[in-house]
Amino acid sequence: MKPDSMIATDVLVIGGGLAGERAAIAAAEAGLDVLILSLVPPRRSHSCAAQGGMQAALGNCVKADGDSPTLHFLDTVRGSDWGADQEVVQIFAEQAPVAVRELAHYGTPWTRVRPGTNRYHIKGETVEIDEREENAGLIMHRDFGGTAKWRACYAGAGTGHSALYALDSVVAKLGIRVWDRAEAVALIHDGSRCHGAAVRCLRTGSHSAVLAKSTVIATGGYGRVYGQYTTNATINEGGGAAIALATGVVPLANMEAVQFHPTALSPSGILVTEGCRGDGGYLLDKNLDRFMVDAEPEKQELASRDVVSRHMMRCIRDGRGVDSEFGPHLWLDIRHLGIEHLTTKLREVWDICRDFVGVDPSKELVPVRPTQHYSMGGIRVNKDGEAYNMAGLFAVGEAGCWDMHGFNRLGGNSLAETIVTGMVIGRCAAERAAGSSIDVPTSLAFDAIAAAESRANAWLSRDGAGPSVFDIRDRMAETMIAKVGIFRTGSELTEAVETLRQLLGECGEAVLQSRGPGMNPELSFAIRLEGMLKLALVTAMGAAARTESRGAHYRTDFPMRNDAEWLNRTLARWPDGAAEPILEYEPVGLIDLPPGHRGYGADERVEMRRSVEVYNGSVDTEQTRLGRLPPGGPTGSQLKWGSWRNVT
Amino acid sequence: MGFLEERDLTDGRRLKFEIFRFNPEDSESAPHLDVFEIDEQPYMSLYIALNVIRETLDPSLMFDFACRSAICGSCGMLVNGRPALGCKTLTSALPETIRLHPLPVFKLVGDLSVDTGVWFREMVENTEAWIHAQQAFDPDGQEERMPDEVAQKIYESDRCIECGCCIAACGLANIEDGFLGAAGLNRICRFALDPRDSRDDSEWFEVVATERGVFGCIGLMACDDVCPKELPLLEHYAWLRRRALRAS
């Protein structure tokens, strides 16, 4: 054991994207020692690929007049199909404007309000609107799906990139240490308190341990369990969720809530921002018909992503898709936005269309189809961001389930979530660290290193004629996209669960071809594969168990939202040594805005049987029973009860 | 009309890849080229091709990709001697024999993988590439105003993805340790343009007007040819030089 193979810090942040870096800044500003681990140099994190915008109710342009955190709260709860924790949504909506303005202070070049006549494309018409002189130079908004006002703040179509570079510049300014090409492969814990993580170096393949007073997981989503059928980067393999699940006690929540983005490029799956439709783009079928106008007369192309994706898939199933050698797709039409708009406000879309499908979007249609994009589910945390059943472990951004998205996230809410959770939860993690000491036998750390090394060595020493890890991955991905996709049914989900169980078994028999020293890319992937399969299985089992349709989870055999039986959140734990996860359910949280119609999508549902008051009365006891740690303030203390009544 | 001349690839070429190999962690490894042959597919990028090679021919092959959409900057490599992003380089634009090397200048991690993260973090620290604000952030206040034209200008130079192609293409960076290169100078330009940054001309002069900065450049301008984001590097250079001369 090398002497440098164990180090200690106050706050360990696993993941160097927007959420992780903002949490690290919160801890560093509190005077604590911080270490960021990242699979890649932080500026290459997947946050950089966010394009269109970040939601915050600043209300700066004419189409945002009258906007407020209360309206943002309403849109987000409706978008979630009432699956969100409404107190968390309230905290989020209040803090989002601070997050956007703070990024401006850090240097993000937000697009600004241009006073005077501006030409916009709204619901198929060209409209001229005079932006007010008194708002000149304030942060501009664009329209996004599922919102009552223009609310998305943006920097061209490179919002995530610009936000990440601004944030990372502050990380450098504060001298925060970053280990890039480093992967947390296990949490160090004693069953109820987290003490850091075992780390594998992706330069050399060596293992070490980082002991920490607070550990913050910020590893993003797990889109790569859908293989190539995702907009996600290759690094979005759900590492953080997997090591949390591997503790045996921390639950993952709502893993069946998987978002499909309506407009990923076909065939590559590369994201094309919702800002295209926000700025007036159309979706067309093979007859060049704007099918969304009939499907959703009110919101048209700008209904929520779950609703638009389903309409697109129905359109394809009805034979109105455009055939190609890669399967059917639909068209995104942004020609009418004009070349100047496309090469400035949608600059990255222009580049992507040119570079990856050879399309000039000012003259040609863009081939798109719905593709896995975002995980609403994740590591279940309380409102302070602390994981259920595990003190000292926090989760921020997409990796966590705080839970402001419920069963469908609105476009632009995830970028805002990264910064808000980084600020709010980062502060809680810092407070927790400041008030504690690392009081743990070093054997716990060395045992964690030894266990990680022995897992790697087991892979390297296994011989014989087993399957390849890439083959198992491909079969997992094909199963997920075919049977745990946009439309789901009980029989297919049961088949998916069966296949994934079998693949998990095969994972224990797979054989590597590459045995050389160093990071060994095949071994690096093999180490993640079991965790990915478990995330896939938890997702499929959660989807099989949830016999209703809510947000992105749509069951053709149970097409209605069922508030009588399923107004709850799935919690999946995987006890140590168990063959399968245990699914449990908790209330979504205190309900202020009662369940109703979202304003788009289907209007039929099974109503609650209990009163909201009775439901709310059960929240605290139920959540505590299922492992929620006590948060800093009592449940509901940050809800503004009934504030929405003044605006509806 | 579209941008790609060749869209129909039904004639299916057999591609020959000659790839630089070296694993610094393996004492028995020596630098050499390995040859792999695969069938070309429609819209095949080097991202797809290299994964096919790793997954079917040699799983020990090291390379870096993340976003595979030319926004994260992970996959800079020499493609037939020219720095480029692997993800947006389509094989249809290349001859049948494709020779791949890691980017020079940066420390080699293994095969095609190089350590750009440490290089760029040092550059950011050396040039203090962050906003030097006059005032602390006020969470209760409205944002500071900025004309949209200024925001657009900053955005244009903020679009650099630090892929390292310009550094690898730079005649000076290849022989002179510490030269900031186009990415470094562009980064300085981005902050010097920004009214939120309080540094004045004399402070910028310290950073820019040195042999490591804008006066070190020998004007080969390969950086401008290879930048995958098509940043206006020439303009930014000229602007910085003018500003440096004014400050002197």
Question: What this model shows, in words?
Answer:
- The complex is a heterodimer of chains A (648) and B (248).
- Chain A is α/β, with parallel strands linked by helices.
- The longest helix of chain A has 25 residues.
- The relative contact order of chain A is 0.16.
- Chain B has 248 residues and is α+β, with helices and mostly antiparallel strands.
- Chain B folds into 2 domains: 101 residues, Beta-grasp domain (Ubiquitin-like (UB roll)), CATH 3.10.20.30; 121 residues, Fumarate Reductase Iron-sulfur Protein, Chain B, domain 2.
- Chain B is 31% helix and 15% strand.
- Chain B contains 8 helices and 7 strands.
- The longest helix of chain B is centred in the last third of the chain and has 15 residues.
- The N terminus of chain B is likely disordered.
- CATH architectural arrangement of the largest domain in chain B: Orthogonal Bundle
Helices of chain B, by number, come to: 8
Number of strands of chain B: 7
Rg calculated over all Cα atoms of chain A: 23 Å
Task: From the alpha carbons, calculate the radius of gyration of chain B and give it in angstroms.
Answer: 21 Å
**What is the residue-mean pLDDT of chain B, rounded to a whole number?**
92
Helix/strand/pairing class of chain B, anyone?
alpha+beta
Helix content of chain A: 25-40%
Summarize the entry for a quick read.
The complex is a heterodimer of chains A (648) and B (248). Chain A is 34% helix and 18% strand. Chain A is of the alpha/beta class.
Key features of this structure:
heterodimer, A: 648 residues, alpha/beta, 7-stranded mixed β-sheet, 5-stranded mixed β-sheet, 23 strands, 34% helix, B: 248 residues, alpha+beta, Ubiquitin-like (UB roll), Fumarate Reductase Iron-sulfur Protein, Chain B, domain 2, two-stranded antiparallel sheet, 8 helices, 15% strand, elongated, disordered N terminus
